[in-house]
């Protein structure tokens, strides 16, 4: 399964096309979340471009938060006009969270989103590219194109 899609044949004629991948950053919160202010962890995706060696020619959009009893997950789409730029982002993404300082900073940020950060242990446990159905990829690309046309 490719998980990225060049889209809009009519836009290709105009020289515009996007590729897209869906990603997630997963934090375990133990023993459990009592209240999570989603406005704080959602900015994690927005902070990625300021981290060192962030790849050029990609942008992050359509962020959301999945929340469970003992986790929160920042989900977002990465877009580019270049499939090579998306590959570069994927490599960068897999490496950046292995740096202890990055992981600890993001864990503290999630802790600030809890009503009682001292009562929970936050641990960055997974970061991955998510499988997305073709229909979801097309929908994300359509949404992004509409947003960029405005």
How would you sum up this structure, described in words?
- This protein is 35% helix and 28% strand.
- The protein has helices spanning 9-13, 43-47, 83-96, 100-112, 134-149, and strands spanning 19-30, 58-67, 71-80, 121-130.
- A four-stranded antiparallel β-sheet has the order 2-3-1-4.
- Strand 2 (58-67) and strand 3 form a beta hairpin.
- The chain is globular.
- The model is unreliable at 7-15 (pLDDT under 50).
Q: Which descriptors would you attach to this protein?
A:
35% helix, alpha+beta, 5 helices, 150 residues, four-stranded antiparallel sheet
Terminal CA distance reads 32 Å
Number of helices: 5
Instruction: Report the strand count.
Output: 4
Strand order of the biggest β-sheet: 2-3-1-4
**Beta-strand proportion:** 25-35%
Along the chain, the helix and strand elements come as HEHEEHHEH
Low-pLDDT segments, ≥5 res:
7-15
* Rg of Cα set: 16 Å
Q: Mean pLDDT across all residues, rounded?
A: 89
**What characterizes the major β-sheet?**
4 strands, antiparallel
Return the structural class.
alpha+beta
The helix content, as a percent range, equals 25-40%
Shape: globular
List the helices and strands and how they pair.
Layout: H1 9-13, E1 19-30, H2 43-47, E2 58-67, E3 71-80, H3 83-96, H4 100-112, E4 121-130, H5 134-149
Antiparallel strand pairs: 1-3, 1-4, 2-3
What's a concise summary of this model?
This protein has 150 residues and is of the alpha+beta class. It has helices at 9-13, 43-47, 83-96, 100-112, 134-149, and strands at residues 19-30, 58-67, 71-80, 121-130.
